[in-house]
Design goal:
Layout (H helix, E strand, L loop, with lengths): L1 E7 L1 H4 L6 H12 L3 E8 L3 H11 L5 E5 L10 H8 L4 E3 L1 H13 L6 H5 L2 E3 L3 E3 L8 E6 L2 E6 L3 H19 L4 E10 L3 H7 L1 H5 L5 E8 L2 E10 L2 H18 L4 E4 L4 H12 L3 E5 L5 H7 L8 E6 L3 H6 L5 H7 L4 H15 L3 E7 L14 E7 L4 E7 L4 H22 L1
Parallel strand pairs: 1-2, 1-3, 3-8, 13-14, 13-15
Antiparallel strand pairs: 4-5, 6-7, 7-8, 9-11, 9-12, 10-11, 15-16, 16-17
Amino acid sequence: MKAAIITIGDELLIGQTIDTNSAWIGAELSKSGFDVSRITSVHDRRDDIIFALNEAAGKTDIVLITGGLGPTSDDITKQTLCEFFNTHLIINDEVLNMIEKMMILRNFPMNEKNRRQAEVPESCRVLKNAAGTAPGMWFEKEGTIYISMPGVPYEMKYLMTELVLPELNKRFTSQVIIHRNIMTYGTFESKLADILTDFESGLPESIKLAYLPASGIIKLRLTGTGADYNSLLKLINEQAGKLYKIIPELIYAEDEESLEMVIGKLLKSSDKTVCTAESCTGGEVAHLLTSVAGSSAYYKGSVIAYANSVKTQLLGVGEEIIEKHGAVSQETVKDMAIGARKLLKTDFAVATSGIAGPDGGTETKPVGTIWIAVASGKEVICEKHVFGNDRNTNINRFTLAALNLLRKQIIKS
């Protein structure tokens, strides 16, 4: 079954608001076996909304619409829907009663704009919104279902989860779609695709492979389509098993799990602790490690050794080391990791020193160069990477490289 998504709002088109609604709706529809054939964002303008509705009409089984249901003058979705479905607005007493109770509960005065939110097209089926004041609306026309919902994400998610998806699942006998996401780090997309050439060519017709790269991490998404859930699940698990045999050194997790989450689990299960000593990453490694709930069980602290004086005075890096080899060197980052581990008394310490850019690079150490070290009770492992020229991208890539080296050393220990 085919679905289309229409998001309404000038703020989406000028970049003031990121359209997270479409991504969430698309993912949920896919889980239910629907094929999302198009996603369209349009201005809060009558002509644009009508055009998008006409484009979807007859080409999809369901059309999900978000946005433009607020109480202000620029929210014109309801009036435009009335025109499209040849109906008119009426006050829905049940919705009005819900809004009045909500205003009293929040100690807000009821005004005419609030009352207007109880207006709905007469021909629609009202979807009561317990998460907000704007109701959802269900229409049917010439074999297509149209569902209009508020643009506020938590209100839309409430309506989708509680009312829309259960009804759609009853109405449609959909094909089964299963996704399995395998997270990889340590190579680039074209090289990974080359490694997996034979794997891809041997995939069953019902299984597709997608490469989804983002800042050094490549998500491999296996998508299976079929009629029987159990048979399809077995097939997709077999293909995932082959990936684990082909690229075991690149796979670190599944299902959107981040490197920092994996590291947290490893440290907790082994009852180990970690600290960080960061120069070029400026605390980003520490930030990601501590973004995981419960990280206080294994994360001790950090030294942001941006200046060389901090490297020498706090971490014990010899001045002669920096003079001879430079701040961005294997020798310096090794001593940073050793010093941090000693200072903060942890099982592991990860250290970074590099040139994020746009300035500071040389012929031998260009912008994008980083040295990383991970110290443990057994050894100190160092890695050098050279990335690109963009400062923010480099900091992100430096951080992921540091986390991945830490992950590998925890497993190795």
